[in-house]
Design brief:
Layout (H helix, E strand, L loop, with lengths): L2 E5 L2 E4 L4 E8 L6 E8 L6 E7 L5 E3 L7 E6 L4 E6 L8 E9 L17 E2 L3 E6 L1
Parallel strand pairs: 2-11
Antiparallel strand pairs: 1-3, 3-8, 4-5, 4-9, 5-6, 7-8, 9-10, 9-11
């Protein structure tokens, strides 16, 4: 059974940092692309970042580029999202998701929610001003 479990969310002041973790099980971790998404109240779920665990290549949305860093520890089947210089507009529920690295996803990054097969339950991040 595929499982993705997020952790590390919380309440932080603007300018602060948090590190989210996504622990995966039930699939061959280094054959998957893992993405982070977020959804604020009343807004659509948006892609934040993605990593191909096969080679460590990464993608970032413009809104987080330079502030967030995605990484993977394949030995631990875990992907991290280091979030620095947090802003109130980063407040959302953050989800990780997984999709197999079929040949197409090795040429472009999956960035839309409907491109992913498996999802975690989410973790709340709240940034106070």
């Amino acid at each position: 059974e595929v499982q993705l479990v997020e952790s590390g969310g919380g309440l932080v002041q603007a300018g602060g940092s948090l590190r989210l973790s996504c622990a995966a099980s039930g699939f061959t971790f280094d054959d998957y692309a893992i993405g982070w998404f977020r959804q604020a109240p009343g807004k659509e779920r948006e892609g934040v970042s993605c990593i191909r665990t096969s080679d460590g290549s990464t993608y970032y949305a413009d809104s987080v580029k330079g502030r967030f860093t995605i990484s993977s520890d394949n030995a631990k089947n875990t992907v991290y999202l280091q979030m620095n210089s947090l802003k109130p507009e980063d407040t959302a529920v953050y989800y990780c998701a997984a999709v197999p690295e079929v040949p197409f996803w090795r040429t472009v990054f999956p960035t839309r929610p409907d491109e992913y097969d498996y999802w975690g339950q989410g973790t709340q991040v709240t940034v106070s001003s």
